[in-house]
Design brief:
This protein is mostly helical. It contains 4 helices and 4 strands; from the N terminus they run H-E-E-H-H-H-E-E. It has a two-stranded antiparallel sheet with strand order 1-2. The protein has a two-stranded antiparallel sheet with strand order 3-4. Helix 1 crosses helix 2.
Length: 115
Protein backbone atom coordinates (compact mmCIF):
# COMPACT_ATOMS: atom_id res chain seq x y z
CA UNK A 1 0.00 0.00 0.00
CA UNK A 2 1.26 3.44 -0.82
CA UNK A 3 0.60 5.37 2.36
CA UNK A 4 1.36 8.74 0.76
CA UNK A 5 -1.38 8.25 -1.83
CA UNK A 6 -3.80 6.98 0.81
CA UNK A 7 -3.07 9.99 3.02
CA UNK A 8 -3.63 12.43 0.15
CA UNK A 9 -6.87 10.63 -0.76
CA UNK A 10 -8.04 11.07 2.81
CA UNK A 11 -7.79 14.85 2.50
CA UNK A 12 -8.75 15.19 -1.19
CA UNK A 13 -10.03 12.00 -2.84
CA UNK A 14 -8.57 11.52 -6.32
CA UNK A 15 -6.57 14.73 -6.03
CA UNK A 16 -4.50 15.74 -9.04
CA UNK A 17 -0.89 15.85 -7.84
CA UNK A 18 2.65 15.12 -8.91
CA UNK A 19 4.48 12.91 -6.43
CA UNK A 20 7.93 11.68 -5.67
CA UNK A 21 8.24 8.47 -3.66
CA UNK A 22 7.87 10.31 -0.37
CA UNK A 23 6.26 13.71 -0.92
CA UNK A 24 4.06 15.95 -3.02
CA UNK A 25 6.05 17.66 -5.76
CA UNK A 26 3.19 19.76 -7.18
CA UNK A 27 -0.45 20.20 -6.18
CA UNK A 28 -2.66 20.58 -9.25
CA UNK A 29 -5.97 20.12 -7.51
CA UNK A 30 -8.60 22.81 -6.88
CA UNK A 31 -9.00 21.76 -3.25
CA UNK A 32 -6.71 23.08 -0.52
CA UNK A 33 -3.44 21.22 -0.21
CA UNK A 34 -2.91 19.53 3.17
CA UNK A 35 0.22 20.50 5.03
CA UNK A 36 3.17 18.14 5.16
CA UNK A 37 2.54 17.74 8.90
CA UNK A 38 -1.06 16.68 8.22
CA UNK A 39 0.08 14.20 5.59
CA UNK A 40 2.83 12.82 7.83
CA UNK A 41 0.37 12.36 10.72
CA UNK A 42 -2.08 10.54 8.44
CA UNK A 43 0.69 8.30 7.10
CA UNK A 44 1.65 7.34 10.65
CA UNK A 45 -2.00 6.58 11.43
CA UNK A 46 -2.33 4.41 8.31
CA UNK A 47 0.91 2.56 9.05
CA UNK A 48 -0.22 1.85 12.60
CA UNK A 49 -3.55 0.49 11.33
CA UNK A 50 -2.01 -1.66 8.58
CA UNK A 51 -1.53 -4.87 10.62
CA UNK A 52 -5.16 -5.00 11.73
CA UNK A 53 -6.32 -4.11 8.19
CA UNK A 54 -4.36 -7.05 6.77
CA UNK A 55 -5.58 -9.33 9.56
CA UNK A 56 -9.18 -8.45 8.69
CA UNK A 57 -8.57 -9.13 5.00
CA UNK A 58 -7.21 -12.62 5.74
CA UNK A 59 -9.92 -13.27 8.33
CA UNK A 60 -12.60 -12.29 5.79
CA UNK A 61 -11.07 -14.61 3.22
CA UNK A 62 -11.14 -17.51 5.66
CA UNK A 63 -14.74 -16.72 6.62
CA UNK A 64 -15.80 -16.60 2.98
CA UNK A 65 -14.26 -20.05 2.43
CA UNK A 66 -16.64 -21.42 5.06
CA UNK A 67 -19.78 -19.55 4.01
CA UNK A 68 -21.07 -22.69 2.34
CA UNK A 69 -21.30 -24.27 5.79
CA UNK A 70 -24.12 -21.84 6.59
CA UNK A 71 -26.44 -22.51 3.67
CA UNK A 72 -30.11 -22.98 4.51
CA UNK A 73 -30.24 -26.73 3.85
CA UNK A 74 -27.23 -27.51 6.04
CA UNK A 75 -26.66 -27.53 9.79
CA UNK A 76 -23.25 -26.46 11.06
CA UNK A 77 -21.52 -28.50 13.74
CA UNK A 78 -20.59 -26.80 16.98
CA UNK A 79 -16.94 -26.93 15.90
CA UNK A 80 -17.80 -25.08 12.69
CA UNK A 81 -19.83 -22.48 14.60
CA UNK A 82 -16.95 -22.02 17.06
CA UNK A 83 -14.39 -21.68 14.25
CA UNK A 84 -16.40 -19.01 12.46
CA UNK A 85 -16.92 -17.12 15.73
CA UNK A 86 -13.19 -17.33 16.45
CA UNK A 87 -12.51 -15.82 13.05
CA UNK A 88 -14.95 -12.99 13.74
CA UNK A 89 -13.20 -12.35 17.07
CA UNK A 90 -9.71 -12.20 15.52
CA UNK A 91 -9.22 -8.40 15.71
CA UNK A 92 -10.11 -8.30 19.41
CA UNK A 93 -8.31 -11.52 20.31
CA UNK A 94 -5.02 -10.45 18.67
CA UNK A 95 -4.26 -6.95 20.01
CA UNK A 96 -0.51 -7.30 19.43
CA UNK A 97 -0.74 -8.08 15.74
CA UNK A 98 2.17 -6.56 13.84
CA UNK A 99 4.09 -6.85 10.59
CA UNK A 100 7.57 -8.29 10.27
CA UNK A 101 10.23 -6.73 8.06
CA UNK A 102 8.80 -8.48 4.98
CA UNK A 103 5.25 -7.24 5.64
CA UNK A 104 3.86 -10.53 6.95
CA UNK A 105 1.54 -10.69 9.94
CA UNK A 106 3.10 -11.76 13.22
CA UNK A 107 1.79 -12.17 16.79
CA UNK A 108 -1.42 -13.72 15.45
CA UNK A 109 -3.10 -16.86 16.74
CA UNK A 110 -5.26 -18.31 13.99
CA UNK A 111 -8.02 -20.74 14.91
CA UNK A 112 -7.77 -24.27 13.55
CA UNK A 113 -10.37 -25.14 10.94
CA UNK A 114 -12.42 -28.17 11.98
CA UNK A 115 -12.38 -31.30 9.83
Amino acid sequence: MNFLIEAINFFAPNAIVSLSETKIVEWHDYRPQPTQAEIDAKIEELQAAEPIRLLRIERNRLLSETDWWAVADRTMTQAQLDYRQSLRDMPVDNPDVALNETGELINVTWPTEPQ
